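Dear colleagues,

I hope this message finds you well. In preparation for our joint manuscript, I am sending the UDP-N-acetylenolpyruvoylglucosamine reductase (Streptomyces pseudovenezuelae) sequence together with its predicted structure, so that both groups work from identical material. I would be grateful if you could confirm receipt.
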Amino acid sequence: MLELHDAPLAPLTTFRLGGPADRLVTATSDAEVIDAVREADDSGTPLLVIGGGSNLVIGDKGFAGTALVVATKGFALDGTRLELAAGEVWSDAVARTVEAGLAGIECLAGIPGSAGATPIQNVGAYGQEVSSTISEVVAYDRHARETVTVPSAECAFSYRHSRFKADPERYVVLRVRFDLEDAEGLSAPIKYAETARALGVEPGDRVPLAAARETVLKLRSGKGMVLDPEDHDTWSAGSFFTNPILTDEEFAAFHARVREHLGDGAEPPAYPAGEGHTKTSAAWLIDKAGFTKGYGTGPARISTKHTLALTNRGAATTEDLLDLAREVVAGVRDTFGITLVNEPVTVGVTL
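The corresponding structure tokens are as follows:
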């Protein structure tokens, strides 16, 4: 294990923000991960687990404890079954499954971060979520002090949520296993309307795997959602807010606010989200509340390519970013009566 003290954390995050950690440990095997976690737990030292750093907002004061970088490697295919070590780069793993002719995660191409983070957040985009292909998650249980294998049915997956996210101090993901599909070189059925339009097909159609992946990468790049060190629009955590899911009563009240603000004919985005619930678009809310692409004059601004991404223009601090996030939350709440919820994990700060 590599160990550093008073180590900067900003370079380990896609925001490039945050102060130093008292101690930074990099683990390259499951055994090293477990040893580092046990050492921290035995000594009562606060522990921050870092994968790809694409979903972290770390305070300017840094982290008073041990930051553990999970840098394990492992990509194993057995037929249609895939096992990834937690430290595998997710976008690279997706590319390799497409090359192998296996469907199920091709529309999750270009998402930054590590494989171990995908079940925690139930990562999803363009009509796919990892919950639909994960078969089980191998994790270290800090309460039981043992390695456990959690079947998909017991992961409590929901929209951008799981049992691992619900109890963040308990589990450290070590490996993720997937059941993919051999569709003779074709993708899973295309579910997302934007993807279908870009591909020139109907929702439900299948297309060549490489075409699905390449199309998603182009769509993501156009929104600043594929990492590029030269493009400050990608110095972000991707979507900063989750799409609100409202009860029927909440949606009716929201609908009334929309028409009051935008006129009687205005219709907000609405998508089925289970019985008695409707999902609407956080990006639409932000834009219609007056926070358009490129909004802001300081070092933290809304992306020029996508209203859901808050970005570091190169000289921002975490507090600059949070000031912008709070302004957006307050503006959307005042206009539409909906309180947006941040998607990234905050460390040492609150929104």
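For the figure legend, we might mention the following. The chain has three domains: 2-70, 75-222, 232-347. The radius of gyration is 20 Å.

With kind regards,
E.M.
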